[in-house]
Fold this sequence. Notes:
The protein is of the alpha/beta class. The chain contains five helices and three strands.
Amino acid sequence: xxxxxxxxxxxxxxxxxxxxxxxxxxxxxxxxxxxxxxxxxxxxxxxxxxxxxxxxxxxxxxxxxxxxxxxxxxxxxxxxxxxxxxxxxxxxxxxxxxxxxxxxxxxxxxxxxxxxxx
Length: 118
């Protein structure tokens, strides 16, 4: 998970843990998110579009360059549709809007995780 907003990151982590997903780390910025991806190679990354040091779309691009099969789900505030579109074109597998809705988060995460298993 990469998210500047600690409250949102905590909320996302609680959703994952409650569904028995293992959260391997939380990055505070895009640079850290890319480094953590390379270190842990997680099954899934959730990443905020707006972050310090390196924005989420740049971090997404670097992760996709490193691993073209990376499963990255972008997180964005309502009203940032242009940024979400840009992220999807850059390789994001899906997106989640804030404020977080537990049902929608799980639905989108499961969709991305199971897409290539069928």
